[in-house]
């Protein structure tokens, strides 16, 4: 900033050219200028040092700018000699041209004055009246010409003065752009070198390599470097790297089980594992060759019943988003009347059922004898439910109170799923899944969502329960927050962030998963998920790593050790693992998915009409069916009708509640049809659980208890 600009800055601004930069400890920075002091805190010592370096560089630049602005002798910021010569040459040319214009002006003034004298003499001569008038007119025009010439010369002189005044400012701007370009070129060159180095390392990597993953247990930040080395039986040839347990990053050194021989005597607090426990022939953990994994999986998923593989293409309707959204800021999303233009032709109950797309992970988990191995598959399953959201920015239909959705795949895939909307405000859905392959899953999810102008936060509340029949292992976890960005301007995109803690309440095993939020400045892989599986004693057994939109891998820990202590007094941990194995990988989207709401193969079948379902099933919802058919205008009319019908039912219940209160009677309100509220024995929470009767009613086709909601 110039001195004039500094005089008009915001209150609280510190002039870096006179500021004092100091550090208090490993993470704190003190920035002071006279009577004003700022205390800044970085996430880590590395980040603090980066900030200090950047501030010092900015301070040096501010000092140079101040000196240049106060020095009228012509000193400028460092620039190349050619730039200075070019600038001086331009100014010299302008000055020369101005001198030429001044000379021409003097000549014009001189000759103009002589012309005026001659014309005056002609006026004094005794000429006819008509000639005198013409001479007078010529004299006036000569005067105007002289005045105009003088004005032109003055304008040229002002232009030159302005060019000289702003020459240094232009040069500083040019120099800044040049520095930015050079810095960008250097960065690109450095990235290219690193890319080539990584390619060479990958091509020539032996059995021992390194990989970097991340886990969060606190909000501190850390930094790690890549490990280098080759496979060797000698301890000194394997490099180990420390990582704080409270940092969001740690290092795993991946060893070849054929070469893994280590006594652990040289590691303090080491806990050993056995490489023979991690074999490629394991009946549960599939080979790391993902192609064979997908082939075997696809064979298991071949349906016995032919189901649809496409739906009508999404119409291209234009809509003024801001005209609808500007009055919605800060409101609960479920209370905002929204046209179907923002929806996808599925209800929230169907989206909840879509979590079962990778149910085979639970089928494999049911075969695990080890609870920690089983935890790995449960963790992969919890992540897989987000894979369908990467392109799914449209909003599902809010279910009507009493609406249900069944997914009966008992003969094909071995499970039956039932969802029911058990509350409208706040919206809550109960879900129950029974599998003949050894597991049962149930949950009650309440969706809390807030529109904040630029983004939409979706916060699922409620616990997910999973129990395996043979072992009795009971797992509980909760979902992370989903955020839809660029609601008003730009392309919509979705991100998942937060932490999931999966707890086996029987064995007390735990898995901590971290969903790293997207950051433009982060070097991490986008949509990264990392975690550690540990037993009841806190001993780590597996490292989980991957992304929530692509795949999850599992690495068995063979050694863990306590390293040195950080400056904050936190103990560092080092893990050595065997090579990772892919537990889950996302299925490719079907052809033309971009025109079918980016639905997966399972999602395309969820709203497929089926016979014998309950009259409250989402497949029978008319507005949703009209939207899927591309008749959006009719769908909007039908949607308003259904919502008004539901509001009338709610007003009737409110009136009944007031009447019961006046009579001193109890009013139970809405009672779910297929679920009942109970206190969960594990978590102690009040949750809706399946009470039975739905599938029996389906067999008998007795839906007399179902309400008329459509």
From TrEMBL:
Query: Which family, according to UniProt?
Result: Belongs to the OSBP family.
Chain segments carrying region Disordered? 65-90, 203-238, 255-299
Q: What is this protein called?
A: Oxysterol-binding protein
Polar residues composition bias: which ranges? Answer: 285-296
Write down the species. Answer: Eolophus roseicapilla (Galah cockatoo)
Please give the coiled-coil regions recorded for this protein.
174-201
> What is its subcellular localisation?
Membrane
Q: How does it sit in the membrane?
A: Peripheral membrane protein
Its predominant location is membrane
Question: What segments bear the compositional bias annotation Low complexity?
Answer: 207-223
Q: Write one Pfam family the protein is assigned to.
A: Oxysterol_BP
Q: Give me any GO biological process, just one.
A: lipid transport
């Amino acid at each position: 900033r110039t001195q004039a600009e500094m005089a008009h800055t915001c209150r609280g601004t510190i002039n870096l050219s006179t500021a004092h930069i100091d550090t208090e400890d490993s993470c704190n920075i003190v920035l002071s200028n006279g009577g004003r002091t700022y205390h800044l805190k970085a996430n880590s010592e590395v980040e603090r040092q980066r900030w200090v370096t950047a501030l010092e560089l900015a301070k040096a630049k501010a000092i140079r700018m101040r000196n240049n602005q106060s020095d009228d002798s012509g000193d400028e910021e460092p620039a190349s000699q050619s730039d200075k010569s070019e600038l001086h040459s331009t100014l010299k040319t302008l000055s020369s041209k101005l001198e030429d214009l001044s000379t021409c002006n003097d000549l014009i003034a001189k000759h103009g004055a002589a012309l005026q004298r001659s014309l005056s003499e002609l006026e004094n001569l005794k000429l006819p009246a008509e000639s005198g008038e013409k001479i007078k007119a010529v004299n006036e025009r000569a005067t105007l010409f002289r005045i105009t010439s003088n004005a032109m010369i003055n304008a040229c002189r002002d232009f030159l003065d302005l060019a000289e005044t702003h020459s240094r400012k232009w040069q500083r701007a040019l120099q800044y752009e040049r520095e930015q370009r050079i810095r960008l070129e250097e960065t690109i060159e450095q990235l290219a070198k690193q890319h080539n180095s990584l390619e060479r390392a990958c091509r020539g990597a032996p059995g021992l390599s390194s990989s970097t993953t991340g886990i969060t247990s606190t909000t501190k930040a850390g930094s790690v470097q890549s490990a280098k080395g080759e496979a060797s039986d000698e301890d000194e040839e394997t490099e180990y790297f420390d990582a704080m347990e409270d940092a969001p990053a740690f290092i795993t050194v991946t060893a070849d089980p054929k070469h893994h021989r280590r006594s652990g005597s040289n590691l303090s607090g080491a806990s050993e594992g056995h490489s023979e426990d991690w074999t490629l022939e394991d009946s549960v953990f599939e080979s790391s060759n993902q192609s064979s994994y997908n082939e075997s999986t696809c064979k298991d998923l071949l349906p016995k019943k032919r189901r649809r593989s496409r739906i009508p293409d999404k119409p291209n309707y234009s809509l003024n988003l801001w005209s609808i959204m500007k009055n919605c800021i800060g409101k609960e999303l479920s209370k905002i009347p929204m046209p179907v233009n923002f929806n996808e032709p599925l209800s929230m109950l169907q989206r909840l059922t879509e979590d079962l797309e990778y149910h085979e992970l639970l089928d494999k988990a049911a075969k695990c004898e080890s609870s920690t191995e089983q935890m790995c598959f449960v963790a992969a399953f919890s992540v897989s439910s987000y894979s369908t959201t990467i392109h799914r920015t449209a909003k599902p239909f809010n279910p009507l109170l009493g609406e249900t959705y069944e997914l009966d795949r008992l003969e094909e895939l071995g499970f039956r799923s039932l969802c029911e909307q058990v509350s409208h405000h706040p919206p809550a859905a109960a879900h129950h899944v029974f599998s003949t392959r050894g597991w049962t899953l149930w949950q009650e999810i309440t969706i809390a969502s807030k529109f904040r102008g630029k983004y939409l936060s979706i916060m699922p509340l409620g616990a997910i329960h999973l129990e395996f029949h043979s072992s009795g292992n009971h797992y509980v976890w909760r979902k992370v927050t989903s955020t839809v960005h660029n609601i008003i301007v730009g392309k919509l995109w979705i991100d998942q962030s937060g932490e999931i803690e999966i707890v086996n309440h029987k064995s007390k095993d735990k898995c901590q998963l971290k969903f790293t939020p997207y950051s433009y400045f982060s070097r991490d892989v986008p949509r990264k998920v990392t975690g550690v599986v540990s037993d009841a004693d806190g001993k780590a057994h597996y490292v989980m790593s991957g992304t929530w939109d692509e795949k999850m891998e599992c690495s068995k820990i063979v050694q863990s050790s306590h390293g040195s202590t950080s400056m904050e007094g936190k103990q560092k941990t080092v893990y050595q693992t065997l090579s990772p194995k892919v537990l889950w990988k996302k299925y490719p989207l079907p052809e033309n998915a971009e025109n079918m709401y980016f639905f997966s193969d399972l999602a395309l079948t969820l709203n497929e009409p089926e016979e014998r379902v309950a009259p409250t099933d989402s497949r029978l919802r008319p507005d949703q069916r009209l939207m899927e058919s591309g008749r959006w205008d009719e769908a909007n009319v039908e949607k308003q009708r259904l919502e008004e019908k539901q509001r009338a039912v709610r007003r009737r219940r409110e009136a009944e509640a007031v009447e019961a209160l006046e009579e001193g009677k109890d009013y139970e309100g809405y009672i779910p049809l297929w679920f009942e509220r109970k206190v969960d024995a594990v978590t102690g929470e009040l949750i809706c659980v399946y009470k039975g009767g739905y599938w029996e009613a389906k067999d008998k086709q007795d839906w007399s208890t179902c309400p008329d909601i459509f």
